[in-house]
Amino acid sequence: MKRIIEAGQRYQVVDKTAYVWEVERVTDKHGIPHASLIRVGAASERRLVSAQILLDRSLYRQVAAPPNPSMPGPA
After folding, report:
1. What's phi and psi for 32, nearest 5 deg?
2. Which of 14, 35, 54, 60 is the most buried (most CB within 10 A)?
3. How many domains does the structure of the chain reveal?
């Protein structure tokens, strides 16, 4: 199954830190897809990582984004 990276998705580095990184955008650098990441709670901290690295479960894990308040909840 092919996994897709999209803006708004959140990831954590698989290490001791609890930092959460949010995908700002996905770009193509010389034929290699990359994700621009912003650290949640510290917008001045940014990373550019290849999609291959971001999807490597030994390096990053996807985490749930907070609920969108504009979306209606269950009735």
Report:
1. -115, 120
2. 35
3. 1
Contact 65, 8 (CB under 8 A): yes
Residue 1 has what pLDDT?
Answer: 37
Integer angstrom CA distances of residue 48 from 15, 29, 39, 55, 73:
18, 10, 11, 13, 34
DSSP-assigned beta bridge partners for residue 47: 37
Position 69 in a domain:
no
For 72, 73, 74, the CA distances from 5, given in Å and listed in that order, are 24, 25, 27
Strand-pair partners of 1: none
Can you give the residue range of the structural domain that contains 44? Answer: 10-63
With tokens 């830190």, the residue in question is 17
